[in-house]
């Protein structure tokens, strides 16, 4: 609790980012229970999946429906929408404009566009399209810890002139410390005075919640999280921690605890995410967790000394 | 990495605080491997157990030898002491003065006295004794989140006049947020300008590492941690995270990863600690984890909604 009121909103990414863990193999009942829990808990947004097109992605057949959200399907999943708004993420080059209905005909409220720094221009074209169709929009710039500031400054110029509502600082590799997060937020605020901000954190170094608290203190308004931290590799900031600690009287942790008890604990027995040493290592080395994810799929999954040696030996070429 | 050099030192508490998890059932080989790992990693102190007297404690028979350190035994465990110093913790009323050899006859370098605020006077008497016998000393004030500031100010007066080398801020319940930790450190610095400070954190809300980073930024010199976070209930700040991130060139994470791979991962299969929802709940409610520890010993261990209801229903009396 804090005397300072909090104007931030939570965007729960359990299905979307968590889907990267289990190939979006969530039952309809699971997703409904999550929606109702978040709605009761007072969480403002639920990101219910990706709005990419299966035509534009390899290996699409095996994925669950939350990877390629369909508006008709969505209506059967959430027949009685509550206060919690629905969000979808799209990736550059993987979205078919024809799939995007006007907001008035969709259950979705928010469409978020994720991109790397070099694709900000393309991302903003998509943002513009979604904006015209009536959606709230965000631009999520990934892997900021690997971006040189001159590139960032160039991107800021495009963003400033765009219609995007929120701009996200995404700690893709879970490598930012609170002082780094603080630095980036100040930089974004300085160059984007006309935009609202969001943060998406990863928990490689057990700093996802702490970095999100830094964002709250600095007036960032959209906070991404997942129930029980479920998300790719080390996972995200935990929704239950935000609901428990943000100074907003409307939040209620009880439904989130219920979701954890009924669904997340059993799911965690089958699927893996969280603070796991190979993910800590990619976080400390400030690189993509894909090498650690590959390691976790082998019998050597806990051989972290060899793994560390491979990533830190200069002669060995490895790609980020 | 940071441009600012770090004058802090790590006190690894794996055996002492981790012993609260497994009743100090660590093999000599485990403890030796840990000592050698910490020594190679550049960790300054290893807290190898408690120096309480078995005569003054109930249920002492079943505990491993690290609960009642004996100087002769210690010499057989660490026949070749390296640079890493050895530490032991004592509790008020559980230590027999006659057990404490002069430092010149012991492998121990540091003796730490843990107490609640109302026992600071008694603790300082013990500190004085250990100081006279040649040891470095710390005073570890527990459960500070439950202490009123007038009591703290009174305690500061006693501490200022004492011979104690370091005074610890102990977040016993894992309930402090970085802003709280920052507040307490400022308070300690203001009232104890002649003392060095230490922090001991718990990870109930995934803030142990973040709170320790706050301490580093504020010049706190002794940082408690455990390998793989092993400690009572939610555990402590992770030694591997400190070794990976503190700006001190001498630290080497590789031996710590080796300890985790060889010993901690297998141990975690048998014993439980870390971010577990009932511990998160006692952390958010700012109370001792004993109710959560009791719950985890029952078949209802994951029934966190009922647990939450019990702790938050006003009619139900529960003691802290």
Automatic annotation (TrEMBL), chains A, B:
Residues 8-261 form the Pyruvate carboxyltransferase domain. GO terms for biological process: carboxylic acid metabolic process. It catalyses: pyruvate + acetyl-CoA + H2O = (3R)-citramalate + CoA + H(+). GO terms for molecular function: (R)-citramalate synthase activity; acyltransferase activity, acyl groups converted into alkyl on transfer. Pathway: Amino-acid biosynthesis. This is Nucleoid-structuring protein H-NS. It comes from Paenibacillus beijingensis.
């Amino acid at each position: 609790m804090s005397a300072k009121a909090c104007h931030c909103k939570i965007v729960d990414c359990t299905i979307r980012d968590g889907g990267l863990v289990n190939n979006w193999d969530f039952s309809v009942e699971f997703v409904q229970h999550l929606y109702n829990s978040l709605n009761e808990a007072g969480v403002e947004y639920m990101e219910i999946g990706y709005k990419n097109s299966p035509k534009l992605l390899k290996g699409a057949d095996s994925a669950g429906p939350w990877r390629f959200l369909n508006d008709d399907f969505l209506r059967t999943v959430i027949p009685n929408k509550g206060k919690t708004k629905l969000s979808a993420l799209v990736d550059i080059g993987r979205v078919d404009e024809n799939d995007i209905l006007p907001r008035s005909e969709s259950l979705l409220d928010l469409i978020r566009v994720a991109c790397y720094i070099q694709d900000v221009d393309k991302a903003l074209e998509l943002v513009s399209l979604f904006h015209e169709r009536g959606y709230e929009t965000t631009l999520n710039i990934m892997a900021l810890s690997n971006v040189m500031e001159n590139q960032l400054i160039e991107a800021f110029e495009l963003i400033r002139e765009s219609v995007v509502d929120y701009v996200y600082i995404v700690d893709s590799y879970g490598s930012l410390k609170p002082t780094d997060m603080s630095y980036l937020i100040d930089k974004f605020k300085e160059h984007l005075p006309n935009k609202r901000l969001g943060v998406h954190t990863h928990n490689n170094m057990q700093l996802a919640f702490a970095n999100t608290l830094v964002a709250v203190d600095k007036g960032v308004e959209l906070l991404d999280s997942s129930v029980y931290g479920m998300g790719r590799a080390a996972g995200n900031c935990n929704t239950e921690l935000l609901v428990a600690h943000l100074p907003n009287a409307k939040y209620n942790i009880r439904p989130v605890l219920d979701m954890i008890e009924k669904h997340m604990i059993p799911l965690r027995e089958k699927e893996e995410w969280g603070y796991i040493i190979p993910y800590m290592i990619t976080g400390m080395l400030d690189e993509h967790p894909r090498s650690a994810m590959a390691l976790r799929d082998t019998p050597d999954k806990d051989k972290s000394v060899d793994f560390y040696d491979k990533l830190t030996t200069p002669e060995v070429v490895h790609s980020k």
